[in-house]
Design goal:
By secondary structure, this protein is mostly helical. The chain has six helices and no strands.
Length: 182
């Protein structure tokens, strides 16, 4: 499909891209797992029914930037209300809802300041600040969809640049970390 003189470069691009994107999606799996565990433990400690279901749903929708954590939290609150509909609101449900909301706030803080920067920067071998700017640019260019595809797209572009523009000093500095595996 490609000219013979470009075969080696294309093979190198495909190999590096596959490696880094596999690490990225592994990082997403790790993020979902860790968030599920955090929310499950928090909700179980305060006695919420269906804690595992709520935690897993919250972890999955958390992958959607901005709106995902809100949907996950609202789902948790809704499930808590419906599971305790026969209980008095002011004496039981309201305090429980505050505790559920606190679990989700704590989870978001842990996710935003510890899990995401660590997992995503290590999985695609980019600095956390780099990832932050890439997601912001993705948001500006494509909204929520742009944010979701920003990191994988940036990863592919970095790999292509590292192979095809290897002599450029700027490209060498930006792609130094992805060449660690070689």
């Amino acid at each position: 499909v490609v000219p013979s003189d470009q075969e080696l470069s294309v093979t190198k691009i495909l190999r590096k891209t596959t490696h880094l994107l596999t690490r990225y999606f592994g990082g997403i799996f790790a993020q979902v797992t860790v968030i599920t565990i955090i929310v499950f433990i928090g909700l179980s400690l305060i006695g919420v029914q269906n804690a595992l279901l709520i935690a897993f749903f919250a972890a999955l929708v958390n992958l959607i930037p901005y709106l995902g954590p809100i949907f996950g939290g609202l789902f948790g609150l809704f499930m808590t209300i419906t599971a305790n509909i026969d209980m008095p609101f002011e004496g039981f449900i309201a305090p429980l809802l505050w505790k559920v909301a606190l679990v989700f706030v704590v989870m978001q803080l842990i996710d935003n300041f510890l899990i995401q920067p660590f997992i995503f920067s290590n999985s695609v071998r980019a600095h956390p600040l780099e990832i932050f700017f890439v997601v912001l640019i993705g948001a500006k260019l494509g909204g929520i969809v742009g944010m979701i595809i920003a990191i994988p797209s940036y990863t592919v572009l970095r790999v292509i640049a590292s192979v095809l523009l290897a002599e450029s000093t700027i490209v060498q500095k930006l792609t130094r970390s992805i060449n660690q595996d070689e």
